[in-house]
Structure formats: structure tokens, C-alpha cells
């Protein structure tokens, strides 16, 4: 069955057209990948309490409803008029503020290509940013008609799969260019500037993601990205709302959760696998992050998965 892309009519706003397109493709709540690299859809039918998540460098656009991201105790609400942008891999909590079965929260996630942003900045011959007010890896920007139009063209390619390899890269490049014309340009330029602190913190995060199970010596990681230890600590916490050790702990606990849920490891095995020496310490820290003990959490998640599977079969 072919799902036809909805276009805006005089009676339909660009956001409504986007919501129609996404709603036609995702009929049940969840997160969905698409055949276009870096593009995903989401659907939620009820408001929900904050859920632990990792947000990659990306833009999140709501076509209908309202969501909120919590980073370091600060909330960032976004809706059809405001997009969310993250310039680093950020541990966060995602909350649905407005959604119902009749009016579900619908939207898309679009992964940023930091190399492409850097190329566009160089081609545009823009001077290096001197804006020191941007100190966080997350922000909200105003949705513009030009941005919506470029996303609409990208989504239209889902009905024309043979054209995706040729046309998608061109439209993705345009979307990055539109972002550099938005009110979030300083945040994006800060993270792509090779001599900037944000770029170095991003490199440190890349190392942490690959080496989360290893013992962390902050002074060695700071030296690795050519920063003094105090400066590294300061900028890491400013951008991520966590210390490097807290960030590593977050990575370990979430990987352990995945191992228990998907690979059926027991609590102790998962704890040792991600670098913990004490299963009891692991359980305490897991309960603190997720609000429930590991065994209970995995049992509840498996129960939810079974219910979802039965719904899809019926």
C-alpha cells in the first residue's frame, strides 16, 4: 500500500500537513526509523511523566502536541512553534505534555551532521562565533516557514524511495543551512568550531561512549582533548549539566539496562560487564536513576513489550 504525502492546502497549515504525513505513517505509539538516514518519527497518545533517554545531536520538531526535555533539572518545552536542538549527546528526560488518542503528539527527529554544518559555515564565509552566552548543549529555536518547507520536501521522498539516494542529501544539506539561519546559529557554530571548548567536549564524549566500562581518570581525558582539568570540568558540566564521572555512570547504567532487557543478562553479569565492581552499588545507582530496582524494572519493561506485541497482532 502506498501512503501518499499530504501537502498544505489553503486551509491546512504546514504543521498540519506535516502531522498528517507523520500520522498516516505511524498509527501506533512509539519511535520509528525511516528509510531516510537520520530521520525518525514519533507518536504519543497520552501525556507521560519524564522518561530517561539519550538525545543525539539533532533537531526535534513537533507537528502536533507538546513535549518537554529535562536536562540538569531545567525544562525545555517545545511545540509546533518551537523546535528543540541539541548539539551534543545529552542524557536527559523526555516528557509528553499534550497528547490524546484523538490528537496524538506527532513529530520527527533529524540527526545533525556536524561535519556538514562546519562545511556550510566555512562556505558561508561566516566569522568565528564570539558569542559566549551559549553555554549549554540544548536550546529551543523558532520554527520558520522555510525550515518546514524543507522538511516537507524531505518527507515527500518517502513516497519516492528510488529518489532518496540522490535527492535526500541535497535536502538534508538545505535543512542544515536553514538551521544556521535560525536563532540557534550560535549554539551550532560553537560546537563545530575546532578551536572551541564545545568541540573538545564533544570529542571527550565520543571517547566516553566508546570506553564507558574503563576506569575514568578525568585529568587524562582532559589532556586528551587538550584542556586543563579545571577548564574541562567547568565546560563539561556547563554543556551537559553533569560531571564527566556522572556522565560515565549514566552511560554504564543505560547499557546495563539494554544488556538485561535485550541480551537477558542477570543483574550481576550486567553490572560487571559495564565496569561496576560491586553489584550492590550498581543496584543502588540504577534505582536512583530509574526509580526502581533493576530486576523489577526489566520485568515491567518485558511486560509492556508483551502487551504492545499482542496489540499489534490483534
TrEMBL record:
Keyword Zinc: no
One Pfam family recorded for the sequence: HTH_18
SMART domains for the chain: HTH_ARAC (SM00342)
Record's keyword terms, sorted: DNA-binding, Transcription, Transcription regulation
GO process terms (BP): positive regulation of metabolic process
Domain of life the protein comes from: Bacteria
Listed InterPro entries: Homeodomain-like_sf, HTH_AraC, HTH_AraC-typ_CS, Tscrpt_reg_HTH_AraC_N
Residues annotated as domain HTH araC/xylS-type: 202-300
Record protein name field: AraC family transcriptional regulator
The organism of origin for this protein: Pseudomonas frederiksbergensis
Amino acid at each position: 500500500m502506498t501512503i501518499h504525502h499530504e501537502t498544505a492546502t489553503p486551509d491546512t497549515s504546514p504543521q498540519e500537513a506535516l502531522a498528517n504525513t507523520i500520522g498516516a505513517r505511524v498509527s501506533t505509539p512509539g519511535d520509528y526509523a525511516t528509510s531516510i538516514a537520520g530521520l525518525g518519527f514519533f507518536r504519543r497518545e497520552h501525556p507521560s511523566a519524564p522518561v530517561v533517554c539519550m538525545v543525539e545531536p539533532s533537531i526535534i520538531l513537533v507537528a502536533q502536541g507538546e513535549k518537554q526535555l529535562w536536562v540538569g533539572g531545567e525544562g525545555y518545552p517545545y511545540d509546533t512553534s518551537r523546535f528543540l536542538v541539541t548539539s551534543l549527546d545529552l542524557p536527559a528526560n523526555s516528557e509528553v505534555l499534550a497528547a490524546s488518542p484523538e490528537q496524538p503528539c506527532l513529530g520527527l527527529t533529524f540527526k545533525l551532521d556536524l561535519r556538514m554544518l562546519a562545511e556550510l559555515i566555512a562556505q558561508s564565509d561566516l566569522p568565528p562565533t564570539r558569542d559566549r552566552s551559549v553555554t549549554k548543549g540544548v536550546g529551543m529555536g523558532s520554527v520558520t516557514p522555510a525550515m518546514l518547507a524543507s522538511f516537507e520536501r524531505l518527507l515527500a521522498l518517502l513516497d519516492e524511495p528510488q529518489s532518496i539516494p540522490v535527492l535526500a542529501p541535497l535536502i538534508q544539506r538545505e535543512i542544515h543551512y536553514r538551521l544556521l539561519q535560525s536563532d540557534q546559529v550560535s549554539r551550532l557554530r560553537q560546537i563545530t568550531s575546532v578551536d572551541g571548548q564545545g568541540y573538545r567536549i564533544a570529542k571527550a564524549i565520543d571517547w566516553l561512549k566508546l570506553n564507558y566500562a574503563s576506569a575514568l581518570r578525568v585529568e587524562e581525558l582532559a589532556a586528551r582533548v587538550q584542556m586543563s582539568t579545571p577548564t574541562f570540568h567547568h565546560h563539561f558540566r556547563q554543556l551537559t549539566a553533569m560531571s564527566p564521572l556522572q556522565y560515565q555512570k549514566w552511560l554504564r547504567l543505560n547499557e546495563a539496562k539494554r544488556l538485561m532487557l535485550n541480551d537477558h543478562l542477570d543483574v550481576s553479569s550486567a553490572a560487571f560487564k559495564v565496569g561496576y565492581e560491586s553489584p550492590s552499588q550498581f543496584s543502588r545507582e540504577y534505582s536512583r536513576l530509574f526509580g526502581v530496582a533493576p530486576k523489577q524494572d526489566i520485568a515491567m519493561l518485558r511486560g509492556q513489550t508483551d502487551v504492545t506485541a499482542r496489540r499489534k497482532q490483534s
